[in-house]
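Thread amino acids onto this structure.
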């Protein structure tokens, strides 16, 4: 049976303007870093993408190296587009990135023009797309002139291979310079993708101000700290969790007693708010209007629908915010 998206999908989501651009992004976007590779079941991945789109998630975030193996999340996403979503291409914002190791030799990672352009060509082939909506420099390259990396981003827009460009994990100073260079080239820097959650708050100390000043949007990754900010680790490490998997990026050592104790107390507050721990953690990342979108991961449809319900209660009282700060201190 061919897939028919839910007709009320755009009433279920809120959309926020990405910096000073013309682009609106869903408050919740779905990332394909984990759980969408060849090591995972394609049917689960397909069900999550359908559910996401049915709930108004228009933005799917990928990178050349997502899998494992690297490249397989893009290839699987291409297959799912063929099965379900190709007719809705104009309703989708698809992003990919290049920066981390993708192939051997001196041109398979970092920020040279050679690597970025070859990588985007490979990504487009894997997803069977003519263009992506957003192409990112995945990380700053200390050995390549920023002018070259930003020049490559400008070039892919002029080639029609990307509509917008962004940067990820750049410092506030690097962000300012990147934005300036891109402005001079005539291709504005649309968005920054930094890590942000209750457990990782660096962007509050400068980056958000920089983004506001530059008119850039902000999509925050790992808002659940890879699952730490859910109730799953309160009674040990479940076998099917990311921390238990050999290819998961969350290390067992990160599930420390100190973190688990904080989450236990946060979870009590979430319950008082009538939310799951995950829902409160996600709502919290959206409390600053400069955060355009919170970029979640999910392993199955149940997690995704649980997380989506964070939108039912996004407001925090001053007292709640203070309590959260006290617990995190
Ligand atoms: N730019 C970058 O350098 C960069 C780096 C990292 C990520 N990202 C992007 O950010 C996206 C999200 O990252 P992330 O996967 O680390 O995000 P996350 O939302 O912090 O963690 C997702 C994980 O949390 C658990 N989870 C999710 N919803 C849950 C729920 N409602 N209840 C209980 N557990 C739940 C699942 O882990 P279990 O499998 O343990 O159940 C899931 O795989 C990535 O896919 C990628 O697009 C970008």
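Threaded sequence (329 positions):
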């Amino acid at each position: 049976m061919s897939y028919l998206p839910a007709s009320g999908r755009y009433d279920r989501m809120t959309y926020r303007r990405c910096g000073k651009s013309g682009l609106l992004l869903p408050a919740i976007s779905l990332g394909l870093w984990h759980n969408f590779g060849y090591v995972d079941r394609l049917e689960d991945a397909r069900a999550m993408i359908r559910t996401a789109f049915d709930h108004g998630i228009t933005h799917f975030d990928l990178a050349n190296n997502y899998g494992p193996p690297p490249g397989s999340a893009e290839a699987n996403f291409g297959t799912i587009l063929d099965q379900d979503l190709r007719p809705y291409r104009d309703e989708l914002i698809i992003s990919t990135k290049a920066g981390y190791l993708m192939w051997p030799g001196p041109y398979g990672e970092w920020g040279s023009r050679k690597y970025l352009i070859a990588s985007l060509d490979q990504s487009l082939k894997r997803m069977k797309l003519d263009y992506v909506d957003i192409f990112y420099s995945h990380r700053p390259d200390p050995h390549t002139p920023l002018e070259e990396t930003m020049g490559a981003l400008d070039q892919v827009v002029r080639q029609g291979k990307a509509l917008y460009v962004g940067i990820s994990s750049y410092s506030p100073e690097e962000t300012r310079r990147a934005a300036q260079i891109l402005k001079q080239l005539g291709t504005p820097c649309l968005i920054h993708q930094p890590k942000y959650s209750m457990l990782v708050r660096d962007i509050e100390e400068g980056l958000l101000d920089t983004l506001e000043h530059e008119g850039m949007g902000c999509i925050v990754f790992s808002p659940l700290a890879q699952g730490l900010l859910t109730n799953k680790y309160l009674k040990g490490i479940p076998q099917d969790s990311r921390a238990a998997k050999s290819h998961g990026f969350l290390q067992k050592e990160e599930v420390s007693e100190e973190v688990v104790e904080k989450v236990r107390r946060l979870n009590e507050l979430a319950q008082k708010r009538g939310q799951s721990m995950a829902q409160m953690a996600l709502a919290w990342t959206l409390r600053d209007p400069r955060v355009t979108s919170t970029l979640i991961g999910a392993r199955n449809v149940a997690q995704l629908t649980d997380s989506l319900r964070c939108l039912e209660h996004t407001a925090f009282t001053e007292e709640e915010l203070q309590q959260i700060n006290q617990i995190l201190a």
